[in-house]
Amino acid sequence: MGDTAARPLRADAERSVRAVLEAAERVLAEDPGASMEQIAAAAGVARTTIHRRFASRQALMEALATSAARQLAQAVDDGRPDTAPPLVAMHRITANVLQVKGAWAFALGLPSDPGSEAAILQRDINDRCVAVLERAKAAHLIADTADLDWVRRVYYALISESLRSEPDTDPDTLAARIIDTLLYGAGPRP
Questions:
Q1: pLDDT single digits (tens) 70-125
Q2: Which of 96, 117, 158, 160 is 20 to 30 A from 171 via CA?
């Protein structure tokens, strides 16, 4: 993230970085080829501000991906994956993740270098997801024979499809539908 990762920022500098990242998400989602100047204008900051904070367009993209991944990791943490009952954790995490993914879809879709902070956070999120699914399996919410990596990938696909087809639906409503579909499928209930 350029020089912003090396030392803490003043509150006003932090606000301008946040404004730039939020503007970059909006502008680049509409036009992935948008210029740094267009992003600066959308953020309400001077062109020099964006260039001072981000040495290059690539540095901005890396900061954007890292910021979004941090928010996604926080969304998982806020769902209390290690302490809430598994079904409650799954619902909370899903609702939280839907909100973050809905707001940061462009940034979360950016490719990351394998050693980057964003990629490391994504791998940690995947591991934490499987850990919650292991807790759900232990609570007999998921079959003992289930391949949890496959279940994780299906869960991610359900989240993606929900965001694509119903972006304006309440996250709690979508989370309930996703978890219900993940755990019970479309078959009749016993």
A1: 999 999 999 999 999 999 999 999 999 999 999 999 999 998 899 999 999 999 99
A2: 117
pTM across the whole model:
0.86
pLDDT in tens, 125-183: 999 999 999 999 999 999 999 999 999 999 999 999 999 999 889 999 999 999 999 99
What is the DSSP secondary-structure string of 32-90? TT--HHHHHHHHTS-HHHHHHH-SSHHHHHHHHHHHHHHHHHHHHHHT-TTTS-HHHHH
Question: What residue spans define the domains of the chain?
Answer: 1-55, 63-190
Token couple for 117: 């902070």
How many residues would you count in the chain? 190
Q: What is the spatial distance between Cα 24 and Cα 43, in angstroms, rounded to a whole number?
A: 8
Per-residue DSSP letter, 132? H
